[in-house]
Amino acid sequence: MAETVTHYENFPVASLLCPPHLRQPIAAIYGFARTADDLADEGNVLCERRLQDLHEYRAELQHIAAGNPPSPRWRQVFAPLQVQIRERALPVILLDDLLDAFVQDIVYTRDGCTYANQQELLDYCRRSANPVGRMLLHLYGVNDARSLEQSDAICSALQLINFWQDLSVDLPRGRHYLTDEDCARFRVPRAAIAGRHRSADTDRLIMHNAAVARALMQSGAPLVHTLKGRVGWELRLVVQGGLRILDKVEAQGGGSLLARTTLKPWDWPLMLWRALWM
């Protein structure tokens, strides 16, 4: 789970609140996701090359999951990951889901695809974000259905918050996460979104989506009471970080279409205070 899911930059890697015995498995998962993200998103590589690299990366995951020694190209990623798959029984299907989402992002961007409705968008979140939370719960030994559902809600909310925070960044890159259904509902032409032409209608569209993300986050937030100790406190800060970003998106009143907002140092005391009172 992360404050936002951009480049997994806030993935809780060996953080101060992370139990020491889980730092190596979390670092191995992060290294896997971070490298895949770079293959999908960094540099000026053509889409076809990115897809080929991810195909080979995916094949390597299955290769080491079957117990074979890592190949040289990504040994620094797959050697520690293989140890954790073996020792912690990491669910390989969740790792594969992450790769599937990366592939989808490339294909959708290349082909100018959009999401028809919230169901399609949340299915993308199911693969792009939810596996992170489920793998962490696996490491924490939590696997009941309610906790998994709440984790999915938190992670999907974080992904959505990231989308609405990053509209001004994603749209010029051809990434469209506002759905066709919502655009039609608020009478916003696709051309207006693509061109980032702000209006009262685009403001209402973005604020609606922010409200959806907030409701989803609030539905998952009770998970903080299931996870005890350091892990529970880390999750409180994750939830409050996401909600604070959402506060800022909402304060813009739809202006995230034109400008990205971020957390500032002075946001942390408020987040800590809110985490304390959860």
From TrEMBL:
Q: Which GO terms describe its molecular function?
A: geranylgeranyl diphosphate synthase activity; squalene synthase [NAD(P)H] activity
Q: What class of enzyme is it?
A: transferase
Its domain of life reads Bacteria
Q: Does the keyword Transferase apply?
A: yes
Gene3D superfamilies registered for this protein in UniProt? Farnesyl Diphosphate Synthase
CDD domains in the cross-refs: Trans_IPPS_HH (cd00683)
State one Pfam family annotation: SQS_PSY
What is the E.C. number? 2.5.1.21
| Keywords assigned by UniProt, alphabetized | Transferase
GO BP terms, alphabetized: terpenoid biosynthetic process
Which PANTHER family does this one have?
BIFUNCTIONAL LYCOPENE CYCLASE/PHYTOENE SYNTHASE
Query: Which protein, by its recorded name, is this?
Result: Squalene synthase HpnC
Q: Which organism is it from?
A: Diaphorobacter aerolatus
